[in-house]
Amino acid sequence: MSIPTKITISSLFHRSAAPFFNPTKIPTPPHRLFFSKNITKIISSNQPVLSSPPSSSSLQRVEELPPKLQEIVKLFQAVQEPKAKYEQLLFYGRNLNTLESKYKTTENKVQGCVSQVWVRAYFDEDKNVIFEADSDSMLTKGLAALLVQGLSGRPVEEIVRVSPDFAMLLGLQQSLTPSRNNGFLNMLKLMQKKALQLYVEAKRGASPSSDVSGIGDSTSGDGGVVDSAIGGNLNEDLGHTSVLGSRGRRIEEILNKELRPTAIHVEDISYQHAGHSGVVGSDGETHFNVEVISEEFQGKSLVKRHRMIYSLLQDELQSGLHALSIVAKTPSEAAAQ
Amino acid sequence: MMISMEAVVLKLPSSLRTIHPNPNRALRTVPFASSAAAPAPLSTDPHLGPGSLAHLTRPDFPILHQEVNGKRLVYLDNAATSQKPAAVVNALRNYYESYNSNVHRGIHYLSAKATDEYELARQKVANFINASDCREIVFTRNATEAINLVAYSWGLSNLKEGDEVILTIAEHHSAIVPWQFVAQKTGAVLKFVNLGEDEVPDVEKLREMISKQAKLVVVHHVSNVLASVLPIDQVVSWAHDVGAKVLVDACQSVPHMVVDVRSLDADFLVASSHKMCGPTGIGFLYGKSELLSSMPPFLGGGEMISNVFLDHSTYAEPPSKFEAGTPAIGEAIGLGAAIDYLSAIGMQKIHKYEVELANYLYDRLSSVPSVRVYGPKPSRSVTRAALCSFNVEGVHPTDIATFLDQQHAVAIRSGHHCAQPLHRYLGVNSSARASLYFYNTKEDVDDFIDALSDTINFFASFK
């Protein structure tokens, strides 16, 4: 697998291992002078809840991240002190390739940031997406560098599936919760949107089709990165099973087993719902479109069909599955359409 | 005055965690009579030491006594919003617990009491700014809504094609955007005065621009970015000479100094409660009686009417004419309580303390290497408000504000502070801003400067 960025993860480990992984060698800040001796200087050793070792359900999510992003997340989790995390972040930012000014266009600008952030995306020979980014704020540049490092060189479907929840695992207190409209989320969304644009443009040849402009504004309220039609096409083209995570596969398995459908289509649309309350704290696979064509639905009302499917997926619904959008037809109904 | 201050101090509940316990607080009297002759250097702090106004009043503000990320909170974002003393919080709670009721329409006891208190609050606002009549005070949601009221009501019916509205480029967006709407609808023209030397709006240019074409001058009293103070009384006299009206944005002045609308002779003046120790959700428009009487309504609904027929209605007299619907009753009463609190201290006393603090902040901040502070240098003739917008060479303001918050619990603001045209003129995208109020101590400033130096060093090591 080609690693297009200059800095490989292993070299990053070497460079950063000494100061960051050995606690005794973490550079201590120059002694700060506080006014009153009455104040005991409380160095915050409280870890924010978010950076504590992830529960088993979120570990699953980490494993599903692109490998380099996993490394980055683990690296940040290993760094305890908040200040050291910032140093780590700034190191990333400093090592980011500079973006040529001709790429600092309005199209490439991340909306909704007080600082200026630009992101550029292009395909390499293997149709993996390469990202470049820049910012005038050093912290934002660090965050951009994380994303560039973590997502560059990966295929489109992997990039598109990344839910911004992983940012919580970094333990940076920069309020990286998806519910807040902030730079990090918008950066990720823009990168995902650009990855999709590359995919669509490649599919349809050199000139962008109207579908490209149909890709929604990355700052639109519902947080959707992509028109569901395009997402659907993407799934079909790439084979939907390759896009499903473990929950998606389980859903498909259960429905296949119990309903013996003539046709079934399970689609993970969790990324469209990134940011609303159902997603936070879950393992990232929260919203699905399910289309099932089966004889089992014969003679049953719509409500009954939906109930059947819900009861089959009880366990999933208890463990983080937030919503299902169901189309349940009999073979004759499907043929009649 | 002194007695009431001590009474306030003694009421401090022991459960409050004060980070700076000051056992002398209750006993020391603050020497506010200015000490004799020798002209002291600008950043001397006779009033900033222990026993200062801030030390005396801090216990009244429960919110200030907390830690953020393990450090004592240093709140320096007062230009964005101020903190509220317990008296205001209590007034609001007391309203809801004892006499909440809809105003003006009811006959019963609670309603009468609520109405009395609400109208009393209106009178307090009128007294606070020395308006001649409480009917010249229109309660709005905030200063922004008040400006929109003037724009939609007075502006649309008085401005026509070719008329000029004079503003400065340092105006807050709320003082610019509504007039853009009016200009689009009426064909009036907006003209902006740039900054002169000393980074203050060029007052001479402003005078020149107030020609016969000018019908309205919209101008801030104190700038929320530059900390400069404009000579409103002069601006008003120039405007009145040509028959133009003046709308004063007093959001950053009313909370910090004596503002007298009659001595300024302003036609309109706006301010927000939440910047002056009052609750959010309430502000006011001051307008001269004859102006308000001649203006058509802004919002329509209950309360602002006299008689309603199917095809037309007749309207109430000001201020009711401009107060449609159920108002923010509790909030207005809270604002009244805030005014009581501020008046008990005395706006002159507050202003005097803040001038000292402003000079101290400016001196300390401008001595930090690679820091560039915007606005005029304070001097004998130039007073600054107690706020500084600044940039650090090579470090983005957002980075500064984030690190200050995360590592030092110092709360400042970064961004354009609702003054994009001004930032564009200064050639920057954004700035950081530390803004103080009378409950900020000299120690707050010292902590801020120390934290800032640490922050700058941190980022410098990564360049």
From TrEMBL, chain A:
Statement: the UniProt record of this protein carries the keyword Transcription: no
SUPFAM superfamilies from the UniProt entry: BolA-like, SufE/NifU
Subcellular location field: Plastid, Chloroplast
Pfam families the record matches: BolA, SufE
Keyword presence, Signal: no
InterPro entries: BolA, BolA-like_sf, Fe-S_metab-assoc_dom
Residue stretches making up the Fe-S metabolism associated domain: 74-193
Superkingdom of source: Eukaryota
UniProt signal peptide: none
A cellular-component GO term for this protein: chloroplast
UniProt keyword terms in alphabetical order: Chloroplast, Plastid, Transit peptide
Protein name: SufE-like protein 1, chloroplastic/mitochondrial
Protein species of origin: Salvia divinorum
From TrEMBL, chain B:
Top-level class of the enzyme under EC nomenclature: transferase
Pfam families: Aminotran_5
Keywords assigned by UniProt, alphabetized: Pyridoxal phosphate, Transferase
Enzyme nomenclature, EC number: 2.8.1.7
Domain annotation Aminotransferase class V: ranges: 74-448
InterPro entries membership: Aminotrans_V_dom, Cys_dSase_SufS, PyrdxlP-dep_Trfase, PyrdxlP-dep_Trfase_major, PyrdxlP-dep_Trfase_small
SUPFAM superfamilies in the record: PLP-dependent transferases
Catalysis: reaction(s): (sulfur carrier)-H + L-cysteine = (sulfur carrier)-SH + L-alanine
GO molecular function: cysteine desulfurase activity
Cofactor(s) needed for function: pyridoxal 5'-phosphate
Gene3D superfamilies cross-referenced by the UniProt entry: Aspartate Aminotransferase, domain 1, Type I PLP-dependent aspartate aminotransferase-like (Major domain)
Protein's name according to its UniProt entry: cysteine desulfurase
Gene: NFS2
